Amino acid sequence: MTVQLTPTLCRQWGFANEQPRAGYWTGTHQKVHLFGGLNPVTGQFHRRCASRLTTVCFQRFCQQLLRAYPAGLVVLILDGAPWHRSTSLFEFVRSRPRLGLCFLPPYSPDLNPVEPVWKWLRREVTHNHYFEHLGLLKGALAGFCGRRRSPGSLHRFLRWCRNVC
């Protein structure tokens, strides 16, 4: 997922006769890329920031997941992004028997368990919020991911996973 420094605008409540403000376009296209994974059993959310969306960065995220789960099979549900289908990724997976890839059919993001997390992240962090520089945006993203470990959010994740799986 890519989050830009420019705020995303969406509807919101406001006081009568007062126009809500979300900030302005800064004239820059600075952005943060995120790789994310959700454990449907525990509700644990894993993420990794990257400067670019490449196969190498995605492989680092896969290594992070394998370290987080030292035993058992780790299966990733993936879409058709180029960094998910590269030859070097398949060679990487071949050398790691605990890592499995499951590809979704085209245009079916609703089948991916991490998509609601991205939607939730955008709603809480980027919609109608203005960040002066990339450091503030990264801090807000880290804060969002830190709050997802609370018991209330874990309960919501588990409930969602039971409905989908």
Task: Compile the SSE list and pairings.
Blueprint: E1 2-4, E2 31-38, E3 45-50, H1 55-68, E4 74-78, H2 87-94, E5 99-103, H3 115-126, H4 134-147, H5 151-164
Parallel strand pairs: 4-5
Antiparallel strand pairs: 1-2, 2-3
Helix pairs in contact: 3-4
Summarize the structure.
The chain has 165 residues and is an alpha+beta fold.
Report helical residue fraction. 25-40%
Q: Beta-sheet strand percentage?
A: 15-25%
CATH class of one domain: Alpha Beta
| Global structural class | alpha+beta
- The best one-word shape is elongated
Mean pLDDT: 82
Tell me the total number of β-strands. 5
Number of helices: 5
- Return residue spans where pLDDT drops below 50 for at least 5 consecutive residues: none
Q: Radius of gyration from the CA trace?
A: 18 Å
User: Tell me about the biggest sheet?
Assistant: 3 strands, antiparallel
Spatial gap, N to C terminus: 23 Å
CATH topology of one domain, anyone?
Nucleotidyltransferase, domain 5
- Provide the CATH architecture of one domain: 2-Layer Sandwich
Mind explaining what this structure looks like?
The protein has a three-stranded antiparallel β-sheet, with helices on both faces. Strands 4-5 form a two-stranded parallel sheet. By secondary structure, it is an alpha+beta fold. The chain has a domain of 57 residues: Nucleotidyltransferase, domain 5 (2-Layer Sandwich), CATH 3.30.420. It is elongated. It is built from five helices and five strands; from the N terminus they run βββαβαβααα.
